[in-house]
């Protein structure tokens, strides 16, 4: 008898009550073709050897699992950092774009479109499009184009076209709307989604490509501790892809506590927050039924977080499911707390984290830790892109 897994979807792409593929009829063949191509191609030896080779030689994997000694002393537990910040392009996002670009190429697609918030996924997509010689259009909110100028320049230098999304709050949600609109008008293009969001099968595909993170953690932990699993895994959640990758091998092991950290912004009750699991209710956003922040009329509420990567009004359906069922605990961390954690890691360990990852680090102060606990914090990205914010917030360093 087959045992059920948190990672299983029903035939319509639902994790429990969340997920599905809410797309216009016109795009139905696209998502079905994508699912078929993923299932038939991504488990072949041909795909696996090419994917592994690129992850090794191009992305720089395996990323280290680093025992953070001074951080461990401070929090009274054994704390490891999974160093996704050392990936090519500076974050975990490239694991997924490498996988999806191989899939797109296999499907004969030559025009790639993507959405981006902070620009990290846009850069990771532009990077693999350059690598494969494919056309790349990235939609980005006008406001994000202004506040993330270096990443815009990177995408352009890599040969991508950056198109501004000028509707709504001019941020990630609006860029995603524009990308979906483009996809509807050009169904022959490949939509390369950057997180475990969107219509089925995207959440499944992105989680699978990111699962390399926890597959490496298992091997590395075995070497270092004699066990393949930790007591807790902590990861920040924007859409949820780095968390899904870090949790993947542990969803079905009840001995591992999964800690999902969301951005509380200025505070959960401040009206300026992105803590979707607390403030969200079920609704359809960007092709799936999930938890999202919305008003009584179903209008999406504008999120706020100091980190552009967590500034999203929804979470992926897999996370909505694991949080709703109690499998994962959700913790929210404010802008100021994340800044504090970023400064702390910089000065305790000599590692400047991305603001997103700093949210996960701050969760260490909110958990009850025991001396014998082995904790893995997924350090999703590096802080280079956030130096302007750090400069502004820490003027007296
Ligand atoms: C994009 C991003 C995130 C948030 O996205 P997820 O899909 O939730 O992982 C977190 N950290 C970094 C460094 C990012 O670039």
TrEMBL record:
Please give the function described in this protein's UniProt entry: The beta subunit is responsible for the synthesis of L-tryptophan from indole and L-serine.
Instruction: Cite the entry's keywords alphabetically.
Output: Amino-acid biosynthesis, Aromatic amino acid biosynthesis, Lyase, Pyridoxal phosphate, Tryptophan biosynthesis
Q: Which PROSITE patterns match?
A: TRP_SYNTHASE_BETA
Q: How does it assemble?
A: Tetramer of two alpha and two beta chains.
Please give the CDD domains that the UniProt record associates with this protein.
Answer: Trp-synth_B
Q: What chemistry does it catalyse, as a reaction equation?
A: (1S,2R)-1-C-(indol-3-yl)glycerol 3-phosphate + L-serine = D-glyceraldehyde 3-phosphate + L-tryptophan + H2O
Record-stated family = Belongs to the TrpB family.
Q: Which InterPro entries match?
A: Trp_synth_b_CS, Trp_synth_beta, Trp_synth_beta/beta-like, TrpB-like_PALP, TrpB-like_PALP_sf
Tell me which EC number(s) this protein carries: 4.2.1.20
Q: What is this protein called?
A: Tryptophan synthase beta chain
Which pathway does the UniProt entry assign to this protein? Amino-acid biosynthesis; L-tryptophan biosynthesis; L-tryptophan from chorismate: step 5/5
Superkingdom of the organism of origin: Bacteria
Q: Please list the residue ranges annotated as the Tryptophan synthase beta chain-like PALP domain.
A: 60-381
To which species is this protein native?
Flavobacterium rivuli WB 3.3-2 = DSM 21788
Please tell me whether the keyword Lyase is annotated for this protein.
yes
The molecular function terms in GO held by this entry are:
tryptophan synthase activity
- Which cofactors are named for this entry? pyridoxal 5'-phosphate
N6-(pyridoxal phosphate)lysine (modified residue): where? 93
Identify one Gene Ontology CC term for this UniProt entry.
cytoplasm
Q: Which Pfam families match?
A: PALP (PF00291)
Keyword Magnesium on entry:
no
